[in-house]
Specification:
Elements: H1 2-19, E1 34-39, H2 47-66, E2 75-80, H3 86-99, E3 104-107, H4 111-124, E4 128-130, E5 143-145, H5 154-165, E6 169-175, H6 178-194, E7 202-207, H7 215-224, E8 231-236, H8 242-251, E9 261-263, H9 268-271, E10 283-286, H10 295-308, H11 316-335, H12 340-346, E11 351-353, E12 359-361, E13 369-370, E14 373-377, E15 383-388, E16 393-394, H13 403-406, E17 408-411, E18 417-421, E19 426-427
Parallel strand pairs: 1-2, 1-3, 3-4, 4-5, 6-7, 6-8, 8-9, 9-10
Antiparallel strand pairs: 10-14, 11-12, 13-16, 14-15, 17-18, 18-19
Length: 433
């Protein structure tokens, strides 16, 4: 019996040693990489714009790792392709947060893709940095908006055309989804209510994603512009539909002197695949252009071209990711963790240099401060800056040009709300429209 007892104890000891991890096999979570999700379309109609943003995030991660990473840990990119498919954006966002367990996500371009993933990020308490100009009318606790709100792009573009060019008739031309429709609703109200533009001097039209047959619509624009008043196109056309649109303008010999186009979604990347000679003089409104001379911009361009090749250009949403990534990195260092709630608490008020000689500061409404530039297309596909704001503009989550939005405030510091009605004192139960 004594022998059996000794054997039993020995077996228990062996079993315990087998179940316990060895010293060599143990791992400290602090040695694991910080996982960074990249949620950009690499195929489909939006790949023309979004693939570059995936490349940008990967470059920023590599540069951060070369500096020693964050919190003594290396960063690792987790890249997915939502393929310009809006429901797939939501599926991939859930996969990044639940399965891949990323610490942060940089992604989306269109507003419909962003709105598709918003409920996922709020349900799972993820953190999304969104780098593209958008229509506003939104502020989520879980999203940092590093692209332009309407008061940082669309409204200044209208003011420039009205005051500097003398435009009197307006074509609001957009792709048929939430960003163009909401932006044009704001612009139509601004044109009518504040600038006194008559109904007959505004033409609004929408076409599907990937639209390619522009002959009829461009003829209509030309006819609308022949009424004896200076006319401009304010373009919220998105993705690869821009290429045939500009080609048709050239085919019908509509120059910038005849009817200038100011675009909100056409930058250096989109022009790189075009013969830009017929586009010379057309305009774009952004918060960054590659041609802007600044030491930090020069360094960014040099690093980009060394990595991607001399033919690759930079553009505005790339700078927005540059700003967002650096804001996130600073907040992580300040918080001492990648925990989303801790990082969100550290982010408001954080500042980082932009690439045009100024400073980006994250506001309590989760938008940032940005300068505004109007650029004129050059024959080489770059832009000459013809106008800019004096300093930076604070991004408005809710526009002052729509009655229902005028009374809404977003403040994630004091009010802890993205949809606070200043008249009723009520915070809406949802953080986005």
């Amino acid at each position: 019996m004594k022998l059996k007892y000794i054997c039993f104890v020995a077996l228990l000891a062996l079993a315990g040693n087998a179940c316990a991890p060895s010293e060599d096999a143990s791992s400290d979570p602090q040695d694991d990489p910080i996982r960074v999700g990249v949620l950009h379309s690499l195929s489909g109609s939006m790949a023309i714009s979004e693939t570059t943003l995936k490349d940008t995030v990967e470059m920023l991660i590599d540069e951060q790792n070369a500096r020693g990473g964050l919190l003594g840990r290396q960063l690792e990119a987790v890249v997915v392709d939502p393929a310009s498919d809006w429901p797939l954006f939501a599926e991939q966002a859930r996969n990044l947060l639940e399965v891949e367990q990323v610490d942060v996500v940089f992604g989306c371009w269109t507003s419909v893709s962003r709105k598709s993933v918003l409920p996922v990020f709020e349900e799972l308490n993820g953190l999304l940095f969104y780098p593209v100009q958008y229509e506003g009318e939104e502020s989520s606790k879980n999203v940092i908006y590093t692209g332009a709100a309407p008061n940082q792009q669309a409204i200044p573009a209208i003011d420039y055309l009205r005051n500097e060019v003398g435009i009197e008739r307006w074509v609001l031309e957009g792709t048929d989804y939430v960003y163009p429709r909401t932006t044009n609703r704001i612009l139509e109200a601004y044109l009518k209510d504040e600038l006194g533009v008559a109904d007959e001097d505004i033409s609004i039209n929408y076409t599907p994603f990937g639209h390619s047959d522009w002959q009829t619509r461009v003829s209509e624009i030309e006819s609308f512009g022949s009424a004896g008043k200076l006319t401009a196109v304010v373009s919220t056309i998105n993705g690869d539909a821009n290429v045939p649109f500009y080609l048709e303008l050239a085919n019908q010999e509509i120059s910038a002197e005849d009817i200038p186009v100011v675009a909100f979604s056409v930058g250096e990347e989109e022009l790189s695949g075009l013969d830009t000679e017929p586009l010379v003089g057309h305009l774009a409104a952004w918060n960054y252009f590659q041609s802007i001379e600044d030491p930090m911009n020069s360094e960014f361009i040099t690093n980009w071209k060394q990595r991607m090749g001399e033919s690759r250009t930079t553009n505005d949403p790339m700078e927005a990711h540059y700003i967002g990534f650096n804001l996130w990195a600073k907040a992580v260092e300040q918080a001492g963790t990648t925990d989303v709630d801790a990082v969100l608490a550290a982010l408001p008020g954080t500042e980082t240099p932009n690439l045009t000689g100024g400073t980006a500061r994250l506001l309590a409404n989760h938008h940032i401060t940005k300068p505004v530039f109007i650029g004129e297309v050059r024959a080489d596909g770059q832009f000459d800056v013809v106008w800019q704001t004096d300093g930076t503009v604070e991004g408005d989550a809710w526009t002052n040009h729509l009655p229902d939005s005028r009374v809404i405030e977003a403040d994630w510091v004091e009010l802890e709300c993205g949809n606070y009605n200043t008249e009723t004192g009520i915070c809406s139960g949802t953080n986005y429209e």
